[in-house]
Structure formats: structure tokens, C-alpha cells
Amino acid sequence: MTSALIATGLTKKYGRRTALADCTLDIPAGHVVGLVGPNGAGKSTLLLLACGLLDPTAGRIDVLGERPVSGSPRVGFVAQDTPVYAGLTVAEHLRMGAHLNPSWDAALAEQRIAQVGLDPAQKAGKLSGGQRAQLALTIAAAKRPELLLLDEPVAALDPLARRTFLQGLMELAATGMSIVMSSHLVADLERVCDHLIVLVASKVRVAGDVDDLLASHHRLAGPRRDPAGLGAGRTVVEESHTAKQSTLVVRSTAPIDDPSWQVDRLDLEDIVLAYMSGAAGSGRVLEGQR
């Protein structure tokens, strides 16, 4: 299987509000995928559709070659508030996981609990935020799912807890598990993800392998001019102008060889912010690119 998730024209509305609009995606299997965007962009909705907890209003979504079904053993899901049961101990969570999941990997669960230093006798309600996140990740991972979906799993964690959590995630990815993780923290995504999706205003603005995105996006600075003069093969993602200077973020499939431009490479956060800015998503496609 080459795709973990395929969406075609996927739309979800809550009454009159559109949470996800005409989403078309092909998420490759065996990758760690970062899902990023502002609040209300549709990230959680996409993940809930992918794990079968919501039904589409329009369009189609296939996960691991099938229509999503809630509770599928092939898909693990950790919701944004990393839900655990406050009155149950760590050990009781693991026993419950084993009871509910036929594919439960007890050895993996016990290894992870020991590795992150959780006391099996400790009640979940007494754990720190980072410890609860690790417990939720352990339960989801010990199902041995083919696809693991994580909704803002590190948003409330301190830097050390985030680093520990992400290290555990990388270890799971090394087993071949497909992982999709939403986050506001682009620096964390850059550390662990090799594929990126940017959602803005309920629509996919850009999706692709991180290396390809880094190689194809540039910041140009030079004397003020009409961006249409850049020529074919370049999409203007963001532009700003002063009386004398133009600064552009462009996605380019052709070399930028005009010596009047200063050309700088961008990091992943620069790219994400460009798509999330006021001009995001309305990138001007120059003549010849269509």
C-alpha cells in the first residue's frame, strides 16, 4: 500500500459552518506527516473524519484502502486533550487496552511505560501533563495500528516533556508505522516529520515532502516590480512591497537566475507562515504555470 489516507473533495459542515472544504489529499504510507494551520483551520475535523468519528458532508475519504470505521484496530487515535481515566492506575489502563484490542502488544506497552518512567500503580489523575500524554501514546501505539493519528499531542507540554514525547514518536516511526500529527509547533514538526500539510481557512494550501518544499520555496528581495515579471514556473505565495523594494515568497519549479533578486532559502516555519499569512492560499500563478 502506497497511501495511508486519500481524500477527494472532502467536505465537513457543522450546520452553516464549513470546517473542511473540498479537501483533496494523498498522504503516503510509512511517513511521519505534520498537519499544521491556525485554530479553526480544520485539522481536528480531518483527523476525526480519518478515524471514523465523523462522517463527511460531501466527498470521500479512504484510510488504509477502506472507508474509516470508528474503533478500527488498524488506526490509533490520541485526541487533543490526551484523554485518560483519572481514577484508573497506569497498570489498569494497560489491562483495559489489552481487553479492548485483540492486537495488543503487551511487551511494547510495558517497555514504553518503563522507558518513560511511569509508575504502574500511579493513578492517571496524579500524573503530569507530559506523563498523561505518554500514557495515551502508549495505549494508542500498543494497539499496533498501521496508522497513528495525533491531535495536538504536545501543545500543553513543557520543552523537556515535548522532546521526550517526540523521541518516542520517532521510535514508533522507525517500525514503519504511518503517523499523522497536528501541531502549532512547527519547530517540533520539522524535527520529526518528512511530509507536511498546511490547512488554512478549512482548505489545503500546500502538501508535500518536507525536502521538496524546502528546495522549491524561496524568499526574493529586490527593486520594486510587478511579480508577474518573474516568468513561468513560479507561484507567488506571499508578497509585500515598499516604495522601492519588493519582497516575495515564491514556490518555484524553475531556477531563479535574475541577478537583481537576492534569493534566500526558507526554513519550514517560514514556509508555513507564508501560507498562513493574509495572502495565504491566493498565491498568484504566473502565466505558463497552469
TrEMBL record:
UniProt-listed Gene3D superfamilies: P-loop containing nucleotide triphosphate hydrolases
InterPro entries given in the database record: AAA+_ATPase, ABC_transporter-like_ATP-bd, ABC_Transporter_VariousFunc, P-loop_NTPase
Limits of the ABC transporter domain: 5-226
Signal peptide feature range: none
A GO term for molecular function: ATP binding
Record keywords, A-Z: ATP-binding, Nucleotide-binding, Transport
One Pfam family named in its UniProt record: ABC_tran
UniProt-recorded name of the protein: ABC transporter ATP-binding protein
Protein's organism: Actinoplanes awajinensis subsp. mycoplanecinus
